Amino acid sequence: MNKLFILGDSTAARKEEAARPETGWGEAFGKYLRPGWRLDNRAINGRSTRDTISRGEFAAMLSEASSGDIALLQFGHNDEKLDDPARGARAWHEYKVNLIYMANALMEKGVRVIFLTSIARRSFAEGELLDTHGDWPAAMKAAAAECGIDCIDMTIPTMIGIMMKGEEASKEYFMNFASGIYPNYPDGDTDNTHLRPEGAEWVAGMVYRKLRELDKKVEALVL
Hints:
Strand order of the largest sheet: 2-1-3-4-7
Largest sheet: 5 strands, parallel
CATH class: Alpha Beta
CATH topology: Rossmann fold
Number of strands: 9
Structural class: alpha/beta
Order of helices and strands: EEHHEHEEEHEHEEHH
Number of domains: 1
Strand content: 15-25%
Helix content: 25-40%
Number of helices: 7
């Protein structure tokens, strides 16, 4: 049975029950796989390319990957934290190099690698949605071009989706809600990065549609 790996950060990761309703989009993606594929979600809260490699998590995934598998790599949210030496990775330096290293290592084993740029944060200022990801999406696209692999832009489409939803209504996608709604958050939350189930379904559906647009090999993966 072929595997679809997801490697990335908290926006895709599986969540503990104590964190619910927080939900990673990777948790919502399994329903889109065709029979014969197994979802292996290796995304972890807080991870960047730097510490995914340094902690040995990429090496562990690589050891279990086989020819014919597909790997979706989505990083950037934590690589941007340059004040954290354990995670920060400059866009045009360590970040790009780390992505190229991981892609090449996987491709040597016959794994199809697809990059996904970071999903947008719901960050509004005076009614305008801000682009908070700087050069990291562009650096990922450059790394993909150098490796000769696909890179799906998730940043701009999710920004457009948030803007179309509206500043207030788009809160339903994110962990931004009033008190008294969820037992795990009696005082509410104002997190505009991490997703609720509605947001996870929205992003997973977008990933699915964009994968189907790529080519016949990926069509064999998703319904």
